[in-house]
Amino acid sequence: MLVHSRRGRWTAWTVFFALFLPLFALPFLVIVAASFATHWSGPFPSHPTLAHYRAVGRGDSLHALTTSLLTALAASALALLAGGWAALAAGRLRGAARRVVDALFMLPLAVPSVVVGLSLLVAFSQPPFLLNGTAGIVILAHTVLVTAFAFQSVSAALTRLDPAYEQSAASLGAGPLYVLWRIRIPLLLPSLTAAAGLCFALSMGELSATMMLYPPDWVPLPVRIYGAANRGSLFEGAALAVVLMTATLAVLLAVSRIRTRAAFR
Predict the structure, then answer these.
(1) What homologous superfamily does CATH list for 53-264?
(2) Cβ pair 144, 212 in contact under 8 A
(3) Within a 13 Å sphere around the CA of 172, how many CA atoms are in the beta-carbon half?
(4) Which residues contact residue 216 at a Cβ distance below 8 angstroms, ignoring those fewer than 6 apart?
(5) CA 116, CA 240: separation in Å to the nearest integer?
(6) Among 17, 35, 38, 46, which one has the highest count of C-beta atoms within 10 angstroms of its own C-beta?
(7) Residue 75: alpha-carbon gap to chain centroid
(8) What is the spatial distance between Cα 34 and Cα 38, in angstroms, rounded to a whole number?
């Protein structure tokens, strides 16, 4: 820590917990407590039960969890491919061309996600690109929304790469594809895995655009949580929210381990 005195460290930790507990920890603890509750008419929940979690393991809730995982995995993979490749290509650009490419990839972040959903709904509701009513349009919407993060992450990592590695490989006769596959991508692997984790987490929690696009047979978990809360099943929705957080955290921890190993290499 930057604070070296003992009193200063205690003060810093006190301020941290004073801000962390009410703003971040308590809302999560309330959700966890509600997920086990049958009633909550007093200061604490009552009649604890596991029925809400047992329901997650079957039927529509299990299908929603699987749908969210598949959507997030597909969207993060496509975003990483598109955003990473665009960042590599844009790294060779200078001046106005580079600014235009940056603006195009940041555009989905500059508008509300519901606008992105509406634009995709209009664009892909007529042949020959008819995706409305399919799982593909949901995956496409998530990909559009998270690609900017992959693009920015890889672009930032490219600026920190030492060009001496590529120049040395080229001087020894290595072609562009060999340099890309054996030099640049391994050096970018920590940033690629970090971008993949961020894209996955954002896709798992995306709701606004998904609400406009999802078909009846492809309902992600955030939509089901919203539906449970909307019809008054708050305890069921809390259990689904805990499952969503747990699944996202598990994947992020796995990605973090991969990123750590990549950085060590």
Answers:
(1) MetI-like (1.10.3720.10)
(2) no
(3) 8
(4) none
(5) 26
(6) 35
(7) 9
(8) 8
pLDDT score recorded for residue 99: 86
> CA end-to-end span of the chain, whole Å?
27
Per-residue CA distances from 101 to 76, 87, 94, 151 (Å): 20, 9, 10, 10
Please state the three-class secondary structure of the chain as a single string. Answer: CCCCCHHHHHHHHHHHHHHHHHHHHHHHHHHHHHHCCCECCCCCCECCCCHHHHHHCCHHHHHHHHHHHHHHHHHHHHHHHHHHHHHHHHCCCCCHHHHHHHHHHHHHHHCCHHHHHHHHHHHCCCCCCCCCCCHHHHHHHHHHHHHHHHHHHHHHHHHHCCHHHHHHHHHCCCCHHHHHHHHHHHHHHHHHHHHHHHHHHHHHHCCHHHHHHCCCCCCCHHHHHHHHHHCCCHHHHHHHHHHHHHHHHHHHHHHHHHHHHHHHC
Question: What's the rounded Cα separation, in Å, for the pair 256 and 208?
Answer: 28
Question: Where are the domain boundaries for CATH 1.10.3720.10 in the chain?
Answer: 53-264
- Determine contact, residues 210/223, Cβ cutoff 8 Å: yes
Q: What pLDDT, in 10s, does the model give residues 125-177?
A: 888 888 998 999 999 999 999 999 999 988 888 888 777 777 777 777 777 77
CA 112 – CA 1 distance, rounded (Å): 38
Q: How many CA atoms lie within 13 A of 86 on its CB side?
A: 23
- Phi/psi at 39 (nearest 5 deg)? -135, 155
Q: Residue 19 above 60 pLDDT?
A: yes
User: Rounded CA gap, 61 and 220, in Å?
Assistant: 9
